[in-house]
């Protein structure tokens, strides 16, 4: 079983092909280097392997498995839980929007409107009212109406608010005669016509069937349930879509056992040396919020253990104990590079990718770095290295792959690569070989 297998990897950025059809197999326990001129696509290949970019084409398998988060029962349960949460929230919102709408109308009218349903109002464009008489102004209407809900609803439209209020008060106080056949409201004593429909036909257009409170309630409940189901489906499918799109993420790939350092040092500059290493162990620490808040003894023990391992790593990469509490930015450049390696090792990787670790190092630091890389390999960690420093590469690599313009032009032992005419022409030059 190979540790890492890159098959036909192609990386494109718009019209630029940074890596083209790269095949690379890395066996456990080796130090493998990738070399090539500037812009050859080395870092891009690293970025694809570590999940920073998805491959445009091709596949990458680690320990013979594709670098994809597997679909587990937990994934489905999480999606169901989120779907349920969204569904319940949508249901609550749909059930309470009725009250909100009612409250808003009431604020406007400050009078009269009692029970009606948003769902039915949406459907029919008006409010159904229960109780006695109400003054209402249907949405989109400029005029007021008096609504009687005794049996059939009579809608008498086209009134001013004042006239409607007067009419309602008189109707309620009993000083009225409601002549449905004539569609007039007449004051019984004075015979004064309070209001009268213009003609029967126009009133019939506004006649509508009373929806009982019960039916309106049922409509509303159905409406809320439908919205709830829709919310559940949206929550469930949304979660699954997000999960699918983030299946191949850098953090998942790091968890499977691939760690890296960067060409331009990327430490947490304002954190201490020790904290930088502890961050590399973060994924192994408990993420139980309660345990963290209550500082459970188990958690304290785990923290103490991590701190011990971090100090061991500090020594391993050649940093001193008295540098432990310095801020990362206070370290000399070469030590910052060591710290980055220590942080990567803190993830306990099986494969460590080092992107130009010797950049900016002086010759004696470079020699020490060679020793460190060998010790990392002896610790059981396979190393994949990008480096321009030829003495280092030729001195420690078991195998070397050479990229030029995104294409692998050679691969072999240092001796084989050194003599390869294509490599000499593209990268090494005659001087390096001699
Ligand atoms: N995110 C990106 N968007 C667009 N182009 C990119 C991106 N990343 C890399 N490239 C381009 O891809 C090509 C390969 O770049 P890459 O950094 O992989 O080369 P390299 O071999 O690592 O070079 P160096 O030795 O200088 O680090 C370059 O032309 C670069 O400009």
Explain the layout of strands and helices:
Elements: E1 4-13, E2 16-26, E3 31-35, H1 42-49, E4 57-62, E5 65-66, H2 73-109, H3 118-124, E6 133-136, E7 144-148, E8 154-159, H4 161-173, E9 177-179, E10 184-186, E11 193-196, H5 200-206, H6 213-245, H7 250-256, E12 258-260, H8 273-280, H9 289-294, H10 297-316, H11 333-346, E13 351-355, H12 363-378, E14 382-386, H13 390-396, E15 399-404, E16 407-412, H14 414-419, H15 421-433
Parallel strand pairs: 3-14, 3-15, 12-13, 13-14
Antiparallel strand pairs: 1-2, 1-4, 4-5, 6-7, 7-8, 9-10, 10-11, 15-16
Helix pairs in contact: 2-6, 8-11, 10-11
The structure holds adenosine-5'-triphosphate.
Question: How would you explain this protein's 3D organization?
Answer:
- With 434 residues, this protein is of the alpha/beta class.
- It has 15 helices and 16 strands.
- The protein has helices at 42-49, 73-109, 118-124, 161-173, 200-206, 213-245, 250-256, 273-280, 289-294, 297-316, 333-346, 363-378, 390-396, 414-419, 421-433; strands spanning 4-13, 16-26, 31-35, 57-62, 65-66, 133-136, 144-148, 154-159, 177-179, 184-186, 193-196, 258-260, 351-355, 382-386, 399-404, 407-412.
- Helix 12 links the parallel strand 13 (351-355) and strand 14 (382-386).
- It is globular, with a radius of gyration of 38 Å.
- The relative contact order is 0.14.
- Bound molecules: adenosine-5'-triphosphate.
- Adenosine-5'-triphosphate is lined by residues 13, 16, 18, 36, 38-44, 263.
